[in-house]
Every structure is written in structure tokens, then in C-alpha cells.
TrEMBL record:
Species this chain originates from: Micromonospora aurantiaca
GO-annotated molecular function: DNA-binding transcription factor activity; sequence-specific DNA binding
Domain HTH araC/xylS-type: 13-111
Protein name stated in the entry: AraC family transcriptional regulator
Region (Disordered): 128-162
Biased composition range(s): Low complexity: 132-162
Length: 162
């Protein structure tokens, strides 16, 4: 990896860390671009190339991740959690939450209310939202697809008798 790419990655990590620390605040692209020492447009392009999603989408996922934790662990009303994690309206929060998690915040809370007999290390992995929620899973292609199996390779035919 070249030095320029490493420096760019470090700059994007600094900006992402700032977003993680202040996820409840409004997204401020100019301030994040200053942290990364790049222009606003270059920041958005580079962030997407580095992390696979735009800064706005990353921040939404981060907020929903925190909301999932609060919904599962506290008795705070959904409206209060909506504002605690940085959403301006309950409608936007609910729509974004459903789009990422695949169910409403209230349904998520009801489902998580019953404790599961699962080790916490597995729960942490399951609690992390995925940007592919609600999309159909694609099956992995078998390793032999498009190749002849070894058994299908035939030996040369015997020579015909004269």
C-alpha cells in the first residue's frame, strides 16, 4: 500500500472516529472534511471508497446501532431514544430504523425484551446492524461451477482395429 493511500485511510479513520464520538450531533460535512484535511466533495468520495458507504449512511447506521442498544437495555420511550441518538423526528427515526433493522423500534424492543440464553459475545455480533438488512441473501457459488469435475475427464479412446 502506498504512503498516500495509508495517509488517506488514516484521515478517513480520524473523521469516522469524530462521527462515532458525536453521533447524536447533526452531520457537519465541512467540519469532517477539515478533520481529514480534504475538500467536502473529496471527503465524501474518499469516505465512500474507504468504508463502502457515504458519511450520511454511516452516521445513520451508527445512530440506529446505539438506538438498538438503548431499546434493548433501557425503558426509555421510543421518542426519547429517537432524540438521544440524534434524529430530529420520530417519523424519520422509525423509517430509518425499519430500513436498517427490518422491523419497527417498538417491535424490536418487544422481541429483545425476552432474554435469550446466548453468550454475550454472540449477541454483540448479532446486534450490529448490517447495511444489507431487508435485502435477499445471495447464495455462494460452488467452487466447481464452470469447471469439469476430475471424474468427468475421460481417458483417450482405444485405437480402432484395422
Amino acid at each position: 500500500m502506498s504512503r498516500a493511500v495509508e495517509e488517506s485511510n488514516r484521515a478517513m479513520l480520524r473523521a469516522r472516529d469524530a462521527m462515532d464520538r458525536a453521533y447524536a450531533q447533526p452531520l457537519d460535512i465541512p467540519a469532517l472534511a477539515r478533520i481529514a484535511h480534504v475538500s467536502e466533495a473529496h471527503f465524501i468520495r474518499t469516505f465512500r471508497a474507504t468504508f463502502g458507504e457515504t458519511p450520511h449512511r454511516y452516521l445513520q447506521r451508527r445512530r440506529v446501532e446505539r438506538a438498538m442498544y438503548l431499546l434493548a437495555r433501557t425503558g426509555e420511550p421510543v421518542t426519547e431514544i429517537c432524540h438521544l441518538v440524534g434524529f430530529g423526528s420520530l417519523g424519520t427515526f422509525s423509517r430509518t430504523f425499519h430500513g436498517i433493522v427490518g422491523e419497527s423500534p417498538s417491535a424490536y424492543r418487544r422481541r429483545k425484551a425476552a432474554p435469550a440464553d446466548v453468550p454475550s459475545c454472540f449477541t454483540k455480533a448479532w446486534m450490529r446492524p448490517s447495511s444489507t438488512a431487508g435485502k435477499p441473501a445471495t447464495a455462494a457459488k460452488p467452487a466447481t461451477e464452470g469447471k469439469k469435475p476430475a471424474a468427468a475427464v475421460s481417458a483417450p479412446a482405444p485405437a480402432a482395429a484395422p
